[in-house]
Amino acid sequence: MFDSIKKIFSDDEGKPVSTTAKPDISREKSAELYEKAKTYFPGGVNSPVRAFKSVYGTPLFIQKGDGCHVWDADGNQFIDFCCSWGPLILGHNNAKVREKVVETIQNGMSFGAPTALENELAELILKNNKYIEKIRFVSSGTEAVMSAIRLARGYTKRDKILKFEGCYHGHSDSLLVKAGSGLVTFGETSSAGVPKSFADETIVVSLNDKEALQKAFKEFKDQIAAVIIEPIPANNGLLLQHKEYLQFLREICTANGTMLIFDEVISGFRVGFEGAAGYYQIQPDIITYGKIIGGGMPVGAYGASAQIMDHISPVGSVYQAGTLSGNPVAMGAGIAQITELLRMGFYRDLNNKAQEFAEAIQRFATARNYKLKVFSIGSIFWFAFTDKDIRTAEDIDPQSMEKFKKMHRELLNRGVYFGPSGYEVGFISSAHTKTDLEKAKRAIFDSLDVVFRSNN
To answer: Signal peptide span per the entry (predicted)?
Structure first.
């Protein structure tokens, strides 16, 4: 598509800048694997966004990862800013995590019974996170959120849930209503197969709208069991909220006897050890976490005060169980990862590195008068092709995704990997070195030149 672009412009220092697009990398083996996969799996994938429907080409089949790099089946090497959608905060194949996993599996991989590893990981988390007193391990973020919703309903004896448009909380039925993430990628706002009666128990309002919240609580007085929010919404762009809005949310929930659930599957242990709760210094009633607590392995958790958590079976009447909950291999990986996150200065160094990266890209775009805004918090960032502030799902122009589509292709051809959707955020890990980030910045600069200075 870009092969004919041969224009030369001058950059801000008067040096020539080429807007020639890079030739496409080879995806022959990935394409073969994808064709075979389509005979096994719906759409050839086991999670929708992996299908590359929002970007050019066929999906890349990843063969290995190490540090901040991944390699695909064709041998192409990329600097990775997807990081398995966030949990690989230490990068791929971290030595300490890997060694702990190998040590653990020498004794077996699953028992369906308690192990000391569960105690050890829970103690590491709870002793260093003042926002929760007890925790329950599960096998995914979706399961954590589903369990938190059930707990809130059981605790309050109410049925309705309030969520926000643009926040994604996994694929459980009552929460697939105007959700973000892969659903927005494909232009959908709900899922087939979700009974209307389930959706009717879910109230959806826009983010950053106090009046809408007040109206909902007035209309459904004494019916709302919980308000669930990504305090740092990062599944439909990075829709950063003002602290005062989140504080207002805390206050209106308290006033109405409604539980406030912070879905920190992405933000938890990312922006800081105590996640968004610690970042904003706001106490939610329940917090959910995802794979980051297991070094990227399939695991999740939800936590709250001891009083609330003691409503969970076998102590209380809210039933929740899981055959692989507290899986020893995931617990071992989590112990190694969480121990690293507790190292003095870890978050300071990581977040400073990420901030410098985001600011450099923003300076470049501003100097070029490119319509691009880089949103960032902690080690999370997002590129929005706009010159406006974005805080709600409605603020995102769907047409801007065409620019991301071109950018994604150019970045792949320059050895940089982002998640295959413009609605998804990027992540920086401790494994991204200064050299890696400089290479990535140059690739991003060149890609932006192609996107904005071409006629295609």
So the answer is: none
**CA gap 243, 10 in Å, rounded:** 42
**CA gap 244, 250 in Å, rounded:** 10
What predicted TM-score, i.e. pTM, was given to this entire model? 0.92
* Strands 8-10 and 69-72, sheet pairing: unpaired
Beta bridge partners of 164: 205
Q: How confident is the model at residue 17 (pLDDT cuts 50, 70, 90)?
A: low
Pairwise CA distance, residues 206 & 189, whole Å: 13
**Catalytic residue list:** 168, 263, 291
- DSSP letter at 456 equals -
Residue span of the structural domain in which 424 resides: 8-80+345-453
Tell me how far apart the alpha carbons of residues 184 and 423 are, in angstroms, rounded to a whole number. Answer: 8
Look up the CATH number of the domain holding residue 361. 3.90.1150.10
CA distance 410 to 2: 10
**In angstroms, rounded to a whole number, what is the distance separating the alpha carbons of residues 399 and 311?**
47
- What are residue 155's phi and psi, to 5 degrees? -70, -40
Peptide bond into 314 cis (omega under 30): yes
Q: What's the number of domains the chain is made of?
A: 2
What are the DSSP calls for 335-355, one per residue? Answer: HHHHHHHTSTTHHHHHHHHHH
How many Cα atoms occupy the beta-carbon half-sphere of 249 within 13 Å? 31
- Rg of the chain over CA atoms, in angstroms? 22
Q: What is the pLDDT of residue 445?
A: 98
Max CA separation in the chain (angstroms)? 71
Closest CA to 422 of 373, 363, 387, 388: 373
Select from 10, 8, 4, 105 the least CA-distant residue to 368. 10
Strands of the sheet containing 62-66, edge to edge, are: 62-66, 69-72, 77-80, 416-417
Q: Does residue 449 sit in helix, strand or coil? A: helix
Q: Is residue 164 part of a domain?
A: yes
pLDDT, one tens digit per residue, over 213-256 is 999 999 999 999 999 999 999 999 999 999 999 999 999 999 99
